[in-house]
Amino acid sequence: MAMAELTTPKTTSPFLDSSSQLRLSSKLHLSNQFRHLLLPPLHATPSSKISCSVSQNNQAPVAVQDNGSVKTKKECYGVFCLTYDLKAEEETKSWKKMISIAVSGAAGMISNHLLFKLASGAVFGPDQPIALKLLGSERSIQALEGVAMELEDSLFPLLREVDIGTDPYEVFQDVEWALLIGAKPRGPGMERAALLDINGQIFAEQGKALNAVASPNVKVLVVGNPCNTNALICLKNAPNIPAKNFHALTRLDENRAKCQLALKAGVFYDKVSNMTIWGNHSTTQVPDFLNARINGLPVKEVITDHKWLEEGFTESVQKRGGLLIQKWGRSSAASTAVSIVDAIKSLVTPTPEGDWFSTGVYTNGNPYGIAEDLVFSMPCRSKGDGDYELVKDVEIDDYLRKRIAKSEAELLAEKQCVAHLTGDGIAFCDLGPVDTMLPGEV
Ligand SMILES: NC(=O)C1=CN([C@@H]2O[C@H](COP(=O)(O)OP(=O)(O)OC[C@H]3O[C@@H](n4cnc5c(N)ncnc54)[C@H](OP(=O)(O)O)[C@@H]3O)[C@@H](O)[C@H]2O)C=CC1
Ligand SMILES: O=C([O-])CC(=O)C(=O)O
Known about the structure:
This protein is of the alpha/beta class. It has a domain at 251-436: Alpha-Beta Complex (L-2-Hydroxyisocaproate Dehydrogenase, Chain A, domain 2). It is 36% helix and 18% strand. The chain has a 7-stranded mixed beta sheet. Strands 4-5-6 form a 3-stranded antiparallel beta sheet, with no helix packed on it. A 3-stranded antiparallel beta sheet has the order 13-16-17. Strand 14 and strand 15 (286-288) form a beta hairpin. The radius of gyration is 24 Å and the shape is globular. The structure holds NADPH dihydro-nicotinamide-adenine-dinucleotide phosphate (NDP) and oxaloacetate ion.
């Protein structure tokens, strides 16, 4: 267990309650987990309006009362002095109850973009205070501390707590959302089976931890690759959480597909709707141009180059990730974070009439004949309550059926590779070289 100490300025703000004072006392023990309390508790509202300004000679910031008198808070530092903006505190009265969001791989590239969007209110809304629970490992604990510092320095009014830790059983305690990003990327010469096994272990462990300590209705979004099968492993290890609550991120693929169709049609991408990604987040994924729409019209009516749709378009979406790695030297991070935001927003806001979104979900009674007991990307709608329903009347022609079957076969093979992690017996791994590739790899 990592043990380190973080020295924190002593804070004796009159506006913090006694438990908060304790958490901010002069030394915080950084073991598996420690807490940065960024703001005073909700409803800890002082009675007169105060704003803060930082004095120029490195002395404690000065609290200014609205009757003009000035009070120096001698032992008050940084963010903890700057939180008593009563205007913001008044707003808290109409805020919703705080929610807890766990993020794994929180010191990684994707998280570095995502956390600041979450904290800003751009994801859950401007009236939703949040607590961030950041999961790392012993190798990243220092980096996580840096992440927490940057979050502090951003002064997000909605960000009420940041915890960091290395033990999922602590970090996932009571969380309502778990965004599982941390996973080992494949290295050169590595077999997919080895990656499935290494990352699979992470998601088996995290599934167990979620099962034990998370909110019983926690929503889980698996991003770490191979995300479909990792999501399956995770949900199999969390039998007390509804399987329906687990998602694999295929929203990036949906966004990429919309972008390509918009470019070809010469329209802005907000004109593209009803975009389904079927199957696995891999080169076998099927971006569905048959049912997608541009300006409300079937894509095939707007883009008459059907050969491009079947070949150029499909391949460009399947291989977009790899092309990006070639150009950028690393896998997509910013656009992935944006797609995570989109995926969550699609669950917490009602889906526009007639439209749908793609997400990898547990196959359990689906109307498309996809094998049961997989995590498979399909078209879904939400009422905005965090839940979703499958869209059940999407047309599937022979072209789609054949390709969907290929992605299904790949997921069934991946599932066999991780049988030891899902409780399905002895693993047997037989993945062909091409089918082991992530998007864009050849
Ligand atoms: N589904 C999708 O659309 C996409 C998925 N991805 C996937 O998301 C994942 C994260 O990507 P990104 O943030 O760019 O990666 P980074 O390498 O920047 O960060 C990933 C984090 O995962 C953790 N990690 C790495 N190896 C291991 C391991 N062996 N065991 C446990 N944790 C490990 C590390 O955190 P720590 O040391 O704290 O554990 C690391 O900080 C990758 O698997 C990537 O393939 C990426 C893009 C799109
Ligand atoms: O291939 C990767 O590791 C990144 C990825 O999933 C993508 O960009 O779609």
